[in-house]
Amino acid sequence: MVLPSSVLVSVLMALPATLAATTSIACSADSQCPEESPCCNQYGECGSGAHCLGGCHPGFSYKKEACMAMPICKDVKTTFGSQAYPNIEQYLGNPEDSDWVYTGYALNNDAGDALLLTMPEDSTGTVLSSSRYMLYGKYGATLKSSRTGGVVSGFITYSDSQDEIDWEFVGSELDVAETNYYSQGALDWNNFLYINDTSNTFENYHTYEVDWQEDHITWYLDGKSVRTLKKADTYDESTGVYKFPQTPARVQFSIWPVVETAGQGTKDWAGGVVNWNSEDIEKDGYFYVTLKDAYIKCASAPSSIAVKGSNAYVYNSTSLFNQDTIMITDDDTVLCSFDNSGLDDNSGCAAGSSSESSSESSSGSSSESSSESSSESSSESSSSSESSSESSSESSSSSKTSSSKVSSSTKASSTSSKPSSTTSLSSSSSDSASSSTQQGFAQSVGSTSTGEVSTTSLGASSSAAGVVIKSSGIMASLAALAMLVIS
């Protein structure tokens, strides 16, 4: 699961490339954020600014109104390779600025026909997220995965209340694609399914799609249906709840590493720990996912949703997050500054949004920035905790048993290592937007007696106990998953 760069309440300057640690206030279902740092981001950290945009949990924040409203779905069709996209550190929440935002190192390839999501040595990768949310519809992408054991790529949807739908790829198994889903962040080892009907996912482009509707989810590989999940089959009689993704979610792509601090089950699943001396690092200076194109086709709003506007999705409950507690309103989605939250007056700020780069769909003009990613670029990583159990009622796709794995939406930090070729898309770090926490892979959390989470920027010598290496993307997420270390 996947997760974006965040702006801490106490503004942090860029960290050095070596191991550096900071602390932030932790948030969860049992511990809401304080008023002075009101927004609980996707990684279970309190703050303002970017904490209050994509990934802000309405139930874990000081008040649900602290989270900015979620920009409503609009159809997107993007051909990658020549556009510039804003880094999340420059983005205040106006979806008209760009269809996509990123953390980490996103590069247009030399041929100009694809976007590379890269992971330089000793970094925690890159996450590309849609700027708008979707609530049902069909979405897809044509891409090549990364390769090498210990390197994971993901293509997911992830909601602020931790619903998730996954395509995921392990670099040591290039003839396999993996599917999974989560409801409200709850771990269920029976939701995971391998899809063997593919060919080398690093060398060959494949098209991965998901048809997400009110009553079912269908995964497609190269136009062929390979798995279907019916909502009716997710009903939990003990709670009276359908454990089915049903809340507005962003589309995310990511690449992230498995490192020494991971649990043994995670290492086994990922084909070992990342080897920073592998062929791609020696040749190119980074591991990479190659993203050719993507689309999002929005569904009509379900009849159960109250429509009081046309700009954004909001929740009308702080304790229940499902289709029945969503409204469509004209609420603001744009912050006036990185010091603000949804509790501040942000009216009129959409016209002067912070991003200078506008993303273009395949029919639009393109521009490209040559500024390089900052050493503190945060990266969302979509990695999902998944089990080896297969759902026998779903699809006839071939499957196989795995050891255990961890979920895909935690975040971590990149170090100063940068890609050695091509052009980095706009990503200089501003003082007000620097973050010491970014997406990567959730390994473990060191908590203090005051409820703070110790977050350590991953460097070459990172070996401290309690390191949290969070993942943005794909890919299930947050502090709850960060606490789960499979051993």
Automatic annotation (TrEMBL):
GO MF annotations in UniProt: endochitinase activity; glycosyltransferase activity
GO annotation, cellular component aspect: fungal-type cell wall; side of membrane
Gene3D superfamilies tied to this protein: 2.60.120.200
Region of interest: Disordered: 347-463
Main location: membrane
Domain GH16: 78-304
Sequence ranges of Low complexity compositional bias: 353-437, 444-463
Domain of life the protein comes from: Eukaryota
Enzyme Commission number(s) of this protein: 3.2.-.-
Compartmental location: Membrane
Signal peptide residue numbers: 1-20
Leading EC class: hydrolase
Membrane topology per record: Lipid-anchor; GPI-anchor
Active site: residue positions: 164, 168
Alphabetized SUPFAM superfamilies for the sequence: Concanavalin A-like lectins/glucanases (SSF49899)
Biological process per Gene Ontology, one example term: fungal-type cell wall organization
Keywords tagged on the record: Cell wall biogenesis/degradation, Glycoprotein, Glycosidase, Glycosyltransferase, GPI-anchor, Hydrolase, Lipoprotein, Membrane, Signal, Transferase
TM region positions: none
Any Pfam family the entry gives: Glyco_hydro_16
UniProt catalytic activity: Random endo-hydrolysis of N-acetyl-beta-D-glucosaminide (1->4)-beta-linkages in chitin and chitodextrins
Assigned protein family: Belongs to the glycosyl hydrolase 16 family. CRH1 subfamily.
Protein name: Crh-like protein
Taxonomic source organism: Cyberlindnera fabianii
